Amino acid sequence: MNVKLVLFAFLFGGLILLNDKTNVNALPALQARQDPGSTLGAFKIVGKSGVNAMHAVLVSPRKVVFVDKLENNALKRPDGLSALSSEYDLDTNTAKPLGIYTNTFCSSGSWLGNGTLVEAGGDKGDANYRSGIQTLRLYDPSVGDWVELEGIVPSNRWYPAMVTLPNGNVMILGGSTAATGVNRAEIDNPTYTIFPPPNGGPLTDTAFPFLSSLLPYNLYPMVHVIPNYEGKTQLFIFANQNGIAYDLDTGTTITTYPKIPGGIRSYPLTGTSIIIPLDPTDYYKPTVMICGGNKVYELTSPAEASCGRLELTTPNAAWEMDEFGGQGRVMPDATFLVDGSILFVNGAATGFAGYRKGGGANALWVNENPVFTPFLYDPFAKTYKTLAASTIPRMYHSVSTLIPDGSVLIAGSNPQGSVSLNVKYSTE
Ligand SMILES: *[C@@H]1O[C@H](CO)[C@@H](O)[C@H](O)[C@H]1NC(C)=O
After folding, report:
1. Is the pLDDT of residue 15 over 50?
2. Which atom of ligand 1 is nearest to the CA of 138?
């Protein structure tokens, strides 16, 4: 395998150097799965993200933009207030504040086809930061900072999903109209918005009732473009335990897929989804893989230890299940490596996505038992390998993304309402 497997870990507080980089090619035979002594891969802590990393996006070959929510981040803007977003330089390992002035909590993001990043939605503001729940934010890498368009999103979007459409526009889908632990009908937003609006004029919402059928677990739905030969705009849309193939051009459901076995897969019983690399020897047949989550909304509930694979264009396809490498994970992150293998990292072995309840010795951590061990999944052989473990819990509000040297950058974790250090699961 020609992948350099260095897992860069970012720390919000101090900087530690854990381990030097390890080249996979230099290692002896790959370790068996679930080998607790695995030394494949190595974590190296390289710098501070400045803001907690709720989202991370590689915006140019040497720069990563982090987006956080409204909280007392260490990194300050020129006006003295805490930054909600930073730009991290991969060469100097330093972060600088970016100009976001509306609350990004529970927003989402995607790329426009023209190379501008879009973020939409969020939460209400406070005395110093304005509401972000109807804000659309644009980051053009050649400009290097955010432009916020406040109030242009036609309805409140908290925990929407976003996806880049084949024509280069973005779709903003679902969410709720107010912050909530679990969604409910009164605040559900079963609609979508396209940006830029296809016919000019203001942004508009289009009803999408399928989402209501997935209540209460329909927040941050999973959305992927289904590649096809006919130039159609077909989407796989999934939440809770159910998904469909939807033709956006004609507004019709093409396929209703069977329910995924095992637990619930979306917020706050958060799993993850990824389209398996398209394989020319298999006629580029699109296959989705959905992993992790939890069965019930209880803080002692063990995380879901299963993944399902589903061929999206095969008639009457059934879910092909596995045990997710033998480890339950809620809030896993899935990242492609350069050879098409998939890194599963971060997450918790118990509970669900959200903030701790209470403080001090009485704190109840709703995500508990952090999973320190990344797994490397081979989507062709369908096997998992255990990688060297991290020492930093990374649960709610943590991220991972591939960077151009072939490493994976891992950051964040903050299972509490604001920056909090020296607690059991401090802000990273
Ligand atoms: C991309 O399109 C958006 C929306 O029309 C526009 O605001 C942005 O400036 C464009 N970016 C570039 C790099 O042209």
Report:
1. no
2. 7
CA atoms of 214 and 241, how far apart (whole Å): 8
> Ligand 1: distance of its center to the CA of 116 in Å?
6
Residue 380 falls in which region: left (phi positive, over 0), alpha (psi -120 to 50) or beta: alpha
Structure confidence by residue, pLDDT tens digits, 66-107:
999 999 999 999 999 999 999 999 999 999 999 999 999 999
Name the domain count of the chain.
1
For residue 382, tell me if it sits in a domain.
yes
**110, 111, 114, 142: residue to mutate for ligand 1 pocket, most atoms within 8 A of CB:** 114
206-250 tens-digit pLDDT = 999 999 999 999 999 999 999 998 999 999 999 999 999 999 999
Parent domain of 367: 260-427
Domain assignment of residue 268, yes or no: yes
For the CA of 115, the nearest atom of ligand 1: 13
The pTM (predicted TM-score) of the whole model is 0.92
Query: Ligand 1 mean position to 340 CA, how many Å?
Result: 30
Instruction: Report which ligand 1 atom has the smallest distance to the Cα of 195.
Output: 4
Task: Report d(CA 290, CA 222) in Å as an integer.
Answer: 9
Asked if residues 37 and 383 have their Cβ atoms less than 8 Å apart, the reply is no
Residue 349's domain is classified under what CATH number?
Answer: 2.130.10.80
